[in-house]
Amino acid sequence: MMTIVFSVAILGALAAVFGLGLGYAGIKFQVPEDERVALVRSILPGANCGGCGYPGCDSLAAAIAAGDAAVNACPVGGDECAASIAEVMGVKAVTFEKKAAFVKCGGSKLNSKYNYEYAGLNSCLAASQLSNGGAKACRYGCIGAGSCANACKFGAVTFNNGLAVIDPEKCTACGLCVSACPKNLVELVPVKSAYKVRCSSADNGKTVRANCSAGCIGCKICEKACGAGAIKVENFLAKIDYEKCTNCGECAKKCPNKTIEATAV
Description:
Layout: H1 2-28, H2 35-43, H3 57-66, H4 78-89, E1 99-103, H5 124-128, H6 147-151, E2 157-160, E3 163-166, H7 176-180, E4 186-190, E5 195-197, H8 205-211, H9 221-225, E6 231-234, E7 237-240, H10 250-254, E8 260-262
Antiparallel strand pairs: 1-4, 2-3, 5-8, 6-7
Helix pairs in contact: 2-3, 2-4
């Protein structure tokens, strides 16, 4: 009996010693927490969308406090959020150009040809593995299975006649829809740009006409109409340089297929 009591006493003493040792080590080697992490985290919107490139707002807050991420790294928070974080970090506020996602395809069920009807999973990636990259005759076109809408946490993506449409007022430019599209049809573009090309086809004009009445045929009429040199046609596809574009609208007026979309600034 005495042996048991003695053993228990020894174990208790050892536990006390180890406990005191761990407590001392915890105090001695404690890494002081940067108070700015909590302050930055309180400013971030809490969407945890991953649009900043980090897993969530907690990770971004830690990265900003450590100087590994810019104060305007959160696309959801915008300029106001960036200014508040800059104040916490003691640096100059940095503004950035507001952008919104845009679907570079105008081929809906009303104006594009389909080779077959897709009835599989609601996944654009799954549908893109089928013949011709999907049901549409245009292999570059929007599949319309909803992956971008499922990825968007802000309800900015809807569908109109099988074509993804993004509401720039709801879009936060987080980029999740960009990553979700297997055909790279979604692009972040400046909101101030009033004209955008709704097509991504690299096919020649004859092929485009056979597949979609809204597609770019590479005629170069828009390129010749642009006095600012902001639009060029390469590989049968018109592309706008948003830095050069003056929003004059001449390209949209002259486009025979109305592929260049005019949007409100």
